[in-house]
Structure formats: structure tokens, C-alpha cells
Amino acid sequence: MLTTLQAARYTIRGMSLGGVYTSIHVPELDALFDCGFPLRASAAVTNLFLSHGHVDHVGALPALLGIRGLHGVRKNLRIFLPAALGPAVEEALTVISRLHRWPLTVDLVPMEPGQEVHLRNDLNVRAFKTYHPVPSLGYLFINRVKKLLPQYAGLPGDEIGRLRRTGAEIFREDPRYELAYATDTLPTVLDREPALFDARVLILECTFLDQKKSVADARAGCHIHLDELLPYAHRFRNEALVLMHFSQLYSPADVRRLLAERCPPEMRRILRSFAPETESWPG
Ligand SMILES: [Zn+2]
Ligand SMILES: [Zn+2]
Fold this sequence. Notes:
Layout lengths: L2 E5 L2 E8 L3 E6 L4 E3 L13 E3 L5 H4 L2 H10 L6 E6 L3 H15 L5 E6 L4 E5 L2 E7 L7 E12 L8 H9 L5 E12 L5 H5 L8 E5 L9 H6 L5 H4 L10 E5 L7 H11 L2 H4 L2 E3 L10
The structure holds zinc ion (2 copies).
One zinc ion binds next to loops.
């Protein structure tokens, strides 16, 4: 019942249905995006990235922590989240721990828009502002590869080592945007965060797909309507564009049909709809 798809070099697996649940695991990044449903097989993940505090994105956090306890995962889950949410998440987990009679402990990493944190090796994550009625963030994964400056190419390794030790600038940084996650937002995010068009993979909400919901109503709820996404179609330079967080107004088959009918070829070429092959949505 989970949806699994391949987007460039990344596996995207989980569930997403607007207003109901969104939990998406990308194992190659050891990252879980939102926790509106407890993904059993992904419970041992290291990092959770919360977009905002609406329950379809955070409501299953205690259940996920319970599964980690059951599976004997010893390391605390590290949760990146909008800084304003920290105290409420701590308070909620304190109360649920009392109910559960076992401490549900986590390591919180409060984030502000523009803040960048080192994750591992050359991989960093940067938070960016999204546009929703509550504190909210998107996340961009950046591979900060260091390349030897051309004038030093061909030097033997020990000579490079010696230059490094002198503190000489012999590398230049060549950042590559690997994956971006933006949900529950107005399309404004695309204008304000142009790096999204260059990420190898862009996971983006597209809650409404046709006239069943007007653009004005979509905007009022701070969500993206396909009508507002289509004008950007020629700008996506991503290897894969994963659309998700579709409304219950559409069945999984409706989603595939409407996207196929309405998106121009340049967008269809990279488009993956994060919807199950089943007739109806899970749950
Ligand atoms: Zn949502
Ligand atoms: Zn929301």
C-alpha cells in the first residue's frame, strides 16, 4: 500500500494525501519528510524533517517513536523543524510519554529560513521559507563537493597535502542541489527559492488539479493548484519532479489522468506522480 518510485538516483517511498497524511522516506539521504503516518519499515531513519505542525504532517510522530522503541533503535531520532515548533513538540512528547509510560526522547534541531546544517560527508541541508498560514519550512539538500583548482591539477598527492597544511586556497566549492522538499505552500516558493528548479529531484505539493477547486480557494488554503504550476513548466531543470499531497477530491487514477492530460511534454518528461497504483488511497 505504500508508494515507491525512483526519481533520478533517489528512492521515494511512503504515503501522501493532502490533509490526511504525508510521510515520505528517501533512504539514500537517510531522511524522512514529515510524519503523518508511521512508516514501519522506515522507523530506524536518522533524520526527520518536519515541514510544519499540521497533524497530517506531524500527527504520527509518537507512533513512529513507539515503533523505534519496539525495534530497539537506540539512537534518538533527530528532528529538523521550524524553530517556532520546538516547544510545542517537546510538550506534546512529554504528555504522550506520560500516557505511554516510557520516555519518547528526540533530538530537536530548530531551523530558521536560510540556515544550513552539515549532515554527513559533503552533504548539507538548508531550510527555506514556504508560504502557509502557520510556521513552515522546506528543505534543500546540497552536496558541497570540493574541486581542486585547475592550476593545481596534476600535482602529486603529497604536494597537495603540503599546500593544504599551509592553508592555501587550492579547492573551489562546487555545490550541487540534490533534492528539495516543499509542501503546504503557495507557489510563491518557486519565485523566492529558484534553487528548487535546479535540484536533481524536486518533491513538491500540488494539492488541486482541476476546476473541482478554484485557484482562489487553493490560494486561500495556501496550497498549489496545477493551474498555477503550469506557467512554470518550462523552468523545471530537475531530473525528476515528484508531485504529491493531492486532495481526496481525486482518486489515484484521476491524478495520473489529469497530470497526463494537462501537463506539457517538457514537464511530463520529468514528472512522477506520488500516487499508488491502487484504485483508492490507502487507509
Ligand atoms: Zn498538508
Ligand atoms: Zn498544512
